[in-house]
Amino acid sequence: MKSENSTPKVNNEHLRYRPKPNIGHLLVLLLIIVFCVFPFYWMIATSLKNQQDILSPTPKFLFSPTLENYQRAVSKFDVALSLENSLIVAVTTTLLSLLLGTPAAYAIARFEFKGKKDLWFWFITNRMLSPIVLALPFFILARNLKLLDSQVVLILIYLTFNVPIVIWICADQFRNIPKELDEAATLEGYNSFSIFWRIGLPLVAPGIAVSAIFSFIFSWNELLYALVLTRKYAQTAPVVATSFMSGYELPWGQIMATGTMIALPVIIFSIIVSRQLVGGLTMGAIK
Amino acid sequence: MPTAKKSYSTGAFWFVAPAMIVLLVVGIIPLLFALWTSFQQFILPKVHFKGAFAGIWPIFDAPFVWLSNYRDLLFDESFRDALGRSFLFLIINLPIQVILGLIIALLLHRPGHEWLKNVTRIALVIPMATTFAVVGLIGRLLFNGDFGINNYFWNLFFGHKMEWLADPNLAFVSISIMDCWQWTPFCALVLFSSLTMVPIEIEEAAKLETDRWWHILRKVQLPFLLPGITAILILRTADILKMFDVVFIMTRGGPGAATELISIYIQRIGFRSFEQGMASAQAIVLLIITIILSRLYIRFIYREV
Q: Is the ipTM of this complex over 0.85?
């Protein structure tokens, strides 16, 4: 009996294979971190420098930080307006996508119906499609409907990529709810809508939050549609970022301050959903 | 039970209908309109509005030329060049990103330095989460000829400065470097999550058999890595055909046409030359390429329907 117990124990000792933590591994990991963070850090550092420090041919690693660039950037009408536009468009399109996407996700997870395969194919194609393909006709259609340069047109076109992402993430969550729960609710006299509304939705709340964050990130980051469909009043933050790069004496500090204000919220959100990030970007093929 | 089943299938329609109708209106109708425009000689400043069909489908006096836009683009060198440039960009950058990504994934998978590995995984999120337009701005800052920090280091090691964004070849290199900065982390995280799917017992047993990491990589880990690698190949191909923001901000496709990738090119034809008919034909060709890619994606990776 004693030998029976000890034999597997010995094996376990062997199995607990651990190479010694080595210094090379440590250094390469540090190098990777530096490579990932440095360009971003450099943008933030530049945004806190005065023009003289920025233009110095020897990069200034030590400098006295100033918030002047941020004050100037925000006081510029188009930067403040564009951040506001971005926020309105991203939030509205996210809410609409949830409203349209969650019931569809529920149906895909729970029901069998004709056209389900086509729906999936449409989602996958959407993930792969260059926005220029939709931007061309959308421009002419919107121009005739007098919708150019409005937040509405951006909200509508952003639904084309946000509804699929909501459907995909939420369908995955709905599938995890045990079917018995639905059956019990049916016996209680719930119809399928109240099962969805009162049982399904509360249980997938975390999934809804994740899909909302994704939808927000994609809308906030979008450039091509916004560039083509807006002129002045509905410009989003990335469009304003493109408009900086003309003329001679570029206000680098303000440009980088604006860049930081555009990118930082998205990075914070992404770190929150970093566990789901890979799944989200590959439409769930790899988790 | 049959009653329950019946209510299920009729219920599905009302659940899916809102999303379907909206996607149809904002997705399919514009595509059909693009197809329609692609058969016309549609030059925006020259056409006149004639009225709208059903209130939303505008009709213009653009002459119908049927397939001649498609015929023209077959023989159009600049279109082929732009498509070729996109594929060149892909062939250069994809192997770099996959190999570096794999190395990073293996380092993350290797035991030891747990705390630092967690920090690395968060650091990897930063490049891929940075707004594409802002990646372009960062590129302009780093590669600036006068005060850019890349030139500072280049000068330190090689004794001279380079005009990164003004030279055609170097501009191509610069946008490639920014693309690698942004997407190598994506490859690393995809491959890392594939590595974690290797059953721990198999991997540890293999480690008792051999000390050589590449044996373990080839015999044990590779089968688990293959779906991830295939997904990266297809998605990165699609992303590079879509690629617009970073290039538009860093170089606007220039100098000359040195960095004019396909989406930038079509955008120029459609919105800077205003040849909407021609641009639509090009977009439809791009759509067909995309549909083929999506089919591949579904066949090889995404089997869940």
A: yes
